[in-house]
């Protein structure tokens, strides 16, 4: 897995132009049943995916924290939201709350999330390949295929099962 994760950014870069063209066509000519097909592909890929063997998302990127996320996680940690913010978060260039550093503070040495039950919405939904109106997040998906082997596999399956 580690070797594959090292190769993933290059694999994604090599496929970037092809994927971008595919997503541009998808936006122009969205299949009526795209959400249904995407759910099937997503489910199929994730049946074969063990995120605990990878955790590359947690090791290389940090999620955005909404106010609801901050309140939920702070409560879980028995902190006041402001205390949680000052201890773990910073405001990024887009004015969003993000972790002060990566890898994620809440990732343990066995790739388990120590706040899994209350983790941020961005973490729960990552890599967003089962999101409704998937065609609207193509730029995000192009970034996620560089990080997540499952997202890479989902996009490759899409191109096979839904040629445009």
Automatic annotation (TrEMBL):
InterPro entries, sorted: Puta_zinc/iron-chelating_dom
Organism: Paenimyroides viscosum
Pfam (any one): CxxCxxCC
Record-given protein name: YkgJ family cysteine cluster protein
